[in-house]
Write a structure and sequence with these properties.
The protein is an alpha+beta fold and 231 residues long. It is built from 6 helices and 11 strands. The strands form 2 sheets. It has a 6-stranded antiparallel beta sheet with strand order 1-11-3-9-6-5. It has a 5-stranded antiparallel beta sheet with strand order 2-10-4-8-7, with helices on one face. It is globular, with a radius of gyration of 17 Å. Bound molecules: zinc ion (ZN). Zinc ion (ZN) binds next to loops. The site of zinc ion (ZN) has 7 residues, from loops.
Length: 231
């Protein structure tokens, strides 16, 4: 919908730093304001629970719920989005922009309705003791020195969870291909955490099951509209 010329430039960008997120695990990375990064689905049909915290105050974090209704005018407030789209911003629980969605080289299916999987989720499904995105996040936050933090509602990249006219939604098989990615620009110094979701109870991750992903920080600063407004 909001294809901008920048999209082509972004995909050609050089990767400055790459963190592989092994299947079923989580990894984190500090990204400075104005820097760009992308989340890559290395083998296809894998969901990534993306968390983004204010690097200087982790009580502020990207919130799917606040992003759904983010508006700067009364007119904008009449048109909300259930799911993110290129050109949009993700805001924090304090309604401050934290990520700008720059480019989407995937089927464009992402979810902002479903919380991170956790131990209780799997217990209810009959799999007590199963790995979870909530645990992965806790491990990464501890590595970065944060023992206490809220569990945000994540941005569920590459999830194919369509909403139907009767108000229900379904969890369908993901449609990403190997190497598909989504790119973002950090709007503040951000601790980015990605969990390669270990869910293997529903067959949504295709025949391979949970697979690995990557966080790639890209060379150069973006010339996106939000940043030019600020400078
Ligand atoms: Zn998960």
């Amino acid at each position: 919908v909001n294809e901008r010329p920048l999209s082509g430039a972004t995909s050609a960008a050089t990767v400055r730093e790459r963190v592989v997120v092994p299947a079923r695990e989580g990894r984190g990375l500090l990204v400075s304001a104005g820097s760009r990064f992308r989340i890559v689905d290395l083998e296809g049909q894998q969901a990534g629970d993306l968390f983004a915290f204010n690097a200087h105050d982790v009580s502020e974090y990207a919130s799917a719920a606040h992003t759904r209704v983010y508006a700067r005018t009364a007119e904008e407030a009449r048109h909300c989005r259930l799911f993110p789209a290129v050109g949009g911003v993700f805001v924090t629980n304090r309604r401050e922009p934290i990520l700008h969605f720059e480019e989407d080289r995937s089927p464009g299916q992402h979810d902002m309705l479903v919380p991170a999987c956790d131990a209780k989720r799997y217990e209810l499904l009959g799999f007590p003791g199963h790995d979870s995105c909530a645990e992965n996040l806790a491990h990464v936050m501890a590595e970065f020195g944060h023992q206490s933090f809220d569990l945000p509602q994540p941005i569920n990249l590459f999830c194919n969870f369509p909403v139907h006219p009767d108000g229900t939604f379904t969890q369908e098989i993901l449609e990403t291909k190997p190497g598909d990615f989504a790119s973002f620009r950090a709007e503040m110094d951000t601790l980015v955490v990605l969990s390669a979701c270990p869910h293997d109870v529903l067959p949504v991750y295709g025949p391979l099951g949970p697979t690995s992903m990557a966080i790639e920080v890209l060379e150069g600063e973006s010339a996106g509209p939000t940043e030019s407004e600020q400078t």
